[in-house]
Specification:
single chain; 300 residues; alpha/beta; 6-stranded mixed β-sheet; 6-stranded parallel β-sheet; 8 helices; 27% helix; globular; binds NADP nicotinamide-adenine-dinucleotide phosphate
């Protein structure tokens, strides 16, 4: 099969759409023929060598943490899904013709392949953040970084729970935030004052998505430091915020089932920009720019 790959660390120019060994579904896994796979910032952190701990590149690196496609292998112990089913979910090395998923949900027939692919990592991460923050109907929450992959899904999932959402973005994305139901505020200097004005006081919870605002500022908006949960600022724990990387606190199958239902009901709408796999470098240049509106998705 073919897969997106790299053999040296660097910029998007190191990526190549080339031959790779076929993966197979192990126990508890399924394999899909990939119809679409999304770009997540962790992918470029991988090929840029940011996550290598200073070690030199060894062997070939592959990319992708989510995808949508048609099931063509079912691993031992898996029930409730069959060869030929349309699914989306999370796995490793998904930016390829075939990929193994560890968690998945049925793709609603009305949902486009690219949108379903975009919902894997962003959907699971948004569900995890909102669950850890215990967001309920009537709460007001601040999503810091509301226009990107995770943020835009979190905004809509919170609204679907009956919460009121204030979200930050650049000025250019304020209309988009309004479109998905949030009250927009500009990030950067003065963001605390703007959130207090938009929310009418403190908020019940802060989902610290982009990881760029000083954590102390966000803690000042919440009833207690632990009501700030971050997925991107791993030092924020020192100030009392909670950091989640998606280990034991992840409930991926339940999260993806919830995401599928919201997608089918149009309560969750994901804006996607698509690229063929052999133009993946263009998509990654946009992702590395850090000013996403929705998700970037690669198509075979
Ligand atoms: N720990 C986990 O489990 C986990 C899971 C998924 C993602 N992540 C991490 O979470 C981060 C966000 O992921 P993503 O997929 O949502 O990224 P993304 O799609 O690239 O979106 C990034 C968003 O950040 C916003 N932003 C840029 N500068 C900002 C600032 N100073 N303050 C607030 N927002 C700002 C941008 O808004 P504008 O476009 O309006 O500038 C953009 O919409 C990444 O670092 C990613 O690696 C962690």
């Amino acid at each position: 099969m073919r897969a997106l790959q790299f053999t040296v660390y660097g910029g998007p120019e190191v990526l190549e759409w080339g031959d790779a060994p076929d993966p197979h579904a192990g126990p508890g896994q399924i394999r899909i023929a990939v119809r679409a796979a999304s770009v997540n910032p962790i992918d470029w952190k991988m090929f840029a060598g940011v996550l290598s701990g200073g070690q030199p590149m060894v062997g070939t690196g592959y990319l992708g943490y989510d995808a949508a496609g048609v099931v063509d292998e079912v691993g031992d112990g898996v029930t409730g899904v069959s060869v030929g089913d349309d699914v989306f979910g999370r796995g490793r090395n998904t930016q390829a013709e075939y990929a193994v998923l560890d968690s998945w949900a049925a793709k609603p027939p009305s949902v486009d392949w690219a949108v379903a692919a975009a919902a894997g990592v962003a959907g699971e991460t948004a569900e995890r953040g909102l669950r850890l923050l215990d967001v309920e109907a009537g709460d007001t929450i601040f999503v810091d970084g509301g226009a990107g992959g995770v943020g835009a899904v979190a905004v809509q999932m919170a609204i679907a729970r009956g919460a009121r959402v204030v979200a930050s973005s650049s000025e250019a994305n304020h209309d988009y935030l309004r479109e998905i139901g949030a009250t927009p505020v500009l990030y950067g200097d003065g963001v605390v004052t703007r959130v207090l004005a938009a929310a009418g006081g403190q908020v019940d919870a802060v989902f610290y998505v982009a990881g760029k605002t000083p954590v102390e500022d966000l803690i000042s908006l919440a009833p207690e430091p632990s009501q700030v949960v971050t997925i991107a600022n791993y030092a924020a724990g020192q100030a009392g915020a909670r950091v989640t990387g998606g280990g034991a606190d992840s409930r991926p199958m339940a999260a993806l089932a919830q995401v599928a239902e919201l997608l089918a009901q149009n309560k969750l709408v994901i804006k996607v920009q698509t690229f063929p796999f052999d133009r993946a470098a263009d998509a990654y240049r946009i992702s590395q720019g850090g000013h996403l509106r929705g998700k970037l998705v690669l198509l075979p």
